[in-house]
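Supplementary Methods. Inverse-folding protocol.

Structures were first reduced to a discrete structure-token string of length 464. This string, shown here, constituted the complete conditioning input.
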């Protein structure tokens, strides 16, 4: 039988808990049957009955709501943490989930330590922290140091929910368990790599967070660089968490700091009219840049990444373009072949497509694009688990493969910090229309850097 767990959620009355944590936890508990008690901890004055009603409404789980507890405490007063200690005494496993802003981490960690709730080298005590982990390298280093004072690295789970998506986890299986791919996965046969993380909605009601953060900190520093590390890392010795993290760290160390001269920022039309946005805000809602990797495997391969709000459609995918074959001579004339693409679609419609060239049916020899697709929807009759479901299942089980380590976080900040500093001290973002693919300068960036263009599946023949 699965072990009993007390999940202590700091900031349990907040939006993240209501929108993501409790709904996903309800599905995990329903599917896996693990006995979990949710303990909400925060500054909000409410009763346990009120909290149980909220848990029932958001998780759709009678089991979770019936056992839920609420503990009111003051993050800055370690003495109030004794109330929490009394509530979890006797629990076999206790997981502390910090669904709070990073500026509260120090106080919460001090309270856990001084109250004796944080116990180093004890696998039954775990802590989960949400992104963003800092806003630059010094702040991220400070948070990691605070975490290390209270917990060992094996007890710390830094959430990047993109890493828990099934398609992202399948990147390693695609690369390392198929002899078709690994021999071509290098500078010799790969011409360029393109990563797009696009949202079709604006910032909504998140101005308080987004106008202080922007596209680079929100998406590039964590999601995109973690994804790129998986795409470009060397084969790990095993798929155990420690070896995968070592391989990702090596990949991140090889990435050069982002060059502001090879980057484009944009701001969608109407952003300055959003509630909570400063009227003179220079915050970017779109960012595109070239990433250079200085190692043997990727030397000279142009890599372009982009992310943005209010773009044409919602899509997250990696497009790997292989070098073109020589032109064909057919019936005395030269005909260019079809570019070979490997497309890893992370959302929506998760799957992997290989676009190749084939002869069009008929009497004439004419090349056309054709696709071979692994569609996740056809592999399972059930819906794919939400990324937060995968995250919570991994945390409850104590597995750490899908979570970045401390050094990965800091290496990623080293890569993006020069660009963030440059953008905050000079210039303005280029305006772009809602429903477009962003500023025209982003197209010029790819054309200048690789003589190519952005590719999105569905817009490209043979990739639907």
């Amino acid at each position: 039988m699965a072990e009993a767990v007390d999940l202590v959620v700091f900031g349990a009355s907040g939006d993240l808990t209501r929108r993501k944590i409790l709904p996903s936890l309800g599905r995990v508990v329903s599917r896996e049957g693990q006995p979990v008690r949710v303990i909400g901890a925060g500054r909000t004055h409410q009763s346990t009955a009120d909290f149980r009603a909220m848990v029932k409404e958001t998780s759709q789980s009678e089991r979770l709501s019936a056992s839920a507890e609420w503990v009111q405490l003051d993050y800055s007063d370690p003495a109030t943490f004794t109330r929490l200690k009394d509530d979890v005494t006797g629990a076999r496993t206790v997981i502390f989930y910090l669904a709070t802003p990073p500026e509260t981490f120090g106080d919460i960690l001090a309270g856990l330590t001084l109250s004796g709730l944080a116990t180093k080298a004890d696998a039954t005590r775990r802590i989960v922290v949400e992104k963003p982990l800092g806003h630059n390298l010094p702040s991220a280093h400070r948070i990691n140091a605070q975490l290390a004072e209270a917990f060992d690295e094996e007890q710390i789970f830094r959430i990047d929910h993109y890493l828990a998506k099934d398609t992202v986890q399948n990147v390693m299986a695609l690369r390392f368990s198929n002899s078709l791919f690994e021999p071509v996965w290098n500078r010799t046969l790969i011409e360029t790599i393109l990563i797009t993380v696009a949202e079709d909605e604006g910032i909504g009601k998140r101005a308080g967070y987004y106008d202080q953060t922007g596209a680079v900190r929100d998406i590039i520093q964590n999601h995109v660089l973690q994804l790129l590390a998986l795409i470009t890392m060397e084969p790990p010795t095993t798929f155990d968490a420690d070896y995968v993290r070592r391989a990702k760290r090596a990949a991140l160390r090889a990435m050069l700091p982002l060059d502001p001269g090879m980057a484009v920022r944009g701001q969608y039309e109407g952003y300055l009219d959003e509630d909570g946005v400063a009227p003179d805000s220079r915050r970017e809602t779109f960012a595109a840049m070239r990433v250079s990797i200085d190692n043997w495997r990727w030397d000279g391969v142009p890599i372009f990444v982009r992310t943005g709000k209010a773009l044409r459609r919602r899509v997250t995918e990696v497009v790997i373009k292989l070098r073109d074959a020589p032109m064909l001579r057919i019936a005395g004339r030269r005909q260019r072949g079809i570019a070979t693409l490997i497309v890893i679609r992370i959302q929506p419609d998760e799957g992997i497509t290989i676009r190749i060239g084939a002869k069009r049916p008929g009497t004439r020899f004419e090349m056309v694009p054709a696709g071979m697709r692994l569609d996740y929807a056809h592999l399972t009759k059930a819906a794919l688990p939400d990324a937060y479901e995968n995250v919570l299942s991994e945390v409850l089980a104590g597995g750490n493969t899908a979570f970045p380590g401390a050094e990965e976080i800091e290496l990623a900040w080293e890569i993006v910090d020069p660009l963030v500093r440059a953008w905050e001290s000079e210039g303005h973002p280029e305006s772009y229309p809602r429903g477009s693919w962003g500023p025209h300068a982003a197209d010029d960036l790819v054309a200048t850097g690789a003589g190519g263009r952005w590719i999105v599946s569905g817009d490209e023949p043979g990739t639907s």
